[in-house]
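Entry 14. Ran structure prediction on the chain below.
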Amino acid sequence: MKKIPAPDFPTGGIIIGKEGLKNAYTTGRGSIKIRAVANIEESSRGREAIIVTQIPYEVRKNDLLSRVADLVNDKKIEGISEIRDESDRTGMRIVFELKKDAQANIVLNQLYQHTALQINYGIIFLALVNNEPKLLNLKQMLQHYIAHRREVVERRTRYDLKKAEERAHILEGLKIALDFIDEVIKIIRKSETVDIARSSLMKRFKLSEIQANAILEMRLQKLTSLESKKILEELNEIKKLIGELKAILKSEGKMYGIIKSELGVIAQKHGVDRHSEVSLVDAESLKMDTEDLIQNENEVITISESGYIRRMPLDTFKRQHRGGKGVISG
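Output, structure tokens:
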């Protein structure tokens, strides 16, 4: 878990839930919370605004905005005065501009509580192993992946070895033809048909049919000293390659070295910095009390002569003018 602290989601967000991650990595099943990245800033109008720059994975932005708008219209969230989507090619930017008397932290808590700005995300490491579905922990997943990569490297190496040996076989035949070029030309000229020439070459130089065909298909330009040198150089390179491929197949260390090297190339080519931040806060600490969702307001509590108790906002009581009676509590 030090090497792989948490999943990384393309839409970013903040991953919360150490225990859920541990369960997922050790048992193959767990649950985490993903929060949007939201900051409280001052808007151009001088009011506070909640700016969202990343949302949880698989949350659709349009659905999120519609949900917030419904909550505002239904007065379940009363602190938002305007919703703007300022996203562009450079990234996401959703602006929730707040009312003058709204408390940003309370509104943000309400958004986390009632919208997909915070979601529960289930993790299950279910994979096909030998065509059977199995629940794997993180270590088992990596072991099966490495085994798969080893099989890929081995199959590819055997294929390359087969092709190299086939090419070497042809070049060996061409080398023999170059060593005895005058006799080869004489045999071909004396033969009435291609089949007779093929058989004669195979018998005289103990060639395979593939080698004999390659000699018969050889162009005249291959008979020059420069072209002959190229054939010999290619044969030497092919023999060297065959030796390297056989060495790979015989050595587990070389096999895993190739796997490591290729993964390094992939990481260098496609690797990017993490999108999702991993929070050290435990998911249990995110549970909200009722007080976390209610704005702090100055209130006046009055008790009438009849014994009734009444709560009213402080600003209900206006400054009393000369001769006025003020606000009657009832």
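The mean pLDDT is 88. Will compare against last week's run tomorrow.
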